[in-house]
Amino acid sequence: MNAQPYNHPFKDYPDLSSLLLQKGMLGEAADIEQHLKDVGYQRLSAYWKPFMSGGNIQASIEDVWHTYCFDRKLRLCILDAIERIEVAVRSKLVHVFCKKYDECGYAYLYPENFDLKKRSKWLAWCTKIGKETRRNNSELVREFRSKYSNQLLPMWTACELMSFGATVTLFEIVEKKIQQQVSHDLQVKSPEVLLSWLKLLNDVRNACAHQNRVWNRTWQRQPMLPRNSASWHCAFNNTTSEWELPSLLPPASPSFSTNQTGIVLTICRQLLKQVASASNWKQRLFNVFDEPRFSIVPTGKMGLPPHWREHPLWQ
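and the corresponding structure tokens:
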């Protein structure tokens, strides 16, 4: 297909409102205009597209706005989970690394303390940490520099400046035994599985932080699931109304679609069991789904199977 130059003229809010009414959206023009003023046509368009059929919008502005609000609340809930997971993983990872290599906090500057096959990644990671340390002027850094002459921070201090992406890279470049210890502490069967989870959560965290749509999104990065782990591959038996473990391993397919947001929520649930066992995150998530105004939201587009709340992984 030959691409054409973009030539759509600017439209003011009343014109955009009229356009949506012509496309079948139900509601008052003033309400449509107000919501367009609040978030913009382009952003809101992602939330009426699931209601489109044959080029027409088969929903009201209220339905579209409630879908937008559902996505916003879901994003905040996911961000809360990922924040707890990020802090816990970073804390465990730095502690295990420093316990093995560090007496003064600077073992991270030496490539021999990392997976030698990942030396180029270590160099990029270490360079980034150094740049962040030198340009950062937070209270943490000012306090350190007021006491010590070192230009670089010890690892247990520098880690507080790391992004989630830098934490994921650190997990990827440390030696296998350190990865295994952290994975074991998080009750994940293999470092490869945990690394794939962390990479996905970093993508999701970035999307949430930039207020991008997440509720019905298809994620390019798919997580690995624990090999030969039956609990990830249960099937719902409609006769008994129960989730049943597969009779054979490895099973044919997972319970949750591995490229949609349902798997993200399930991974968060599993990791939070280990890092924040007293958290009421699961119930707060359920409360978002249970708000009456969100009943219009087609949550089937999230890769969550029917009866997912009763799944063994959610208990």
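(Above: one complete record from the training split.) The mean pLDDT is 94.
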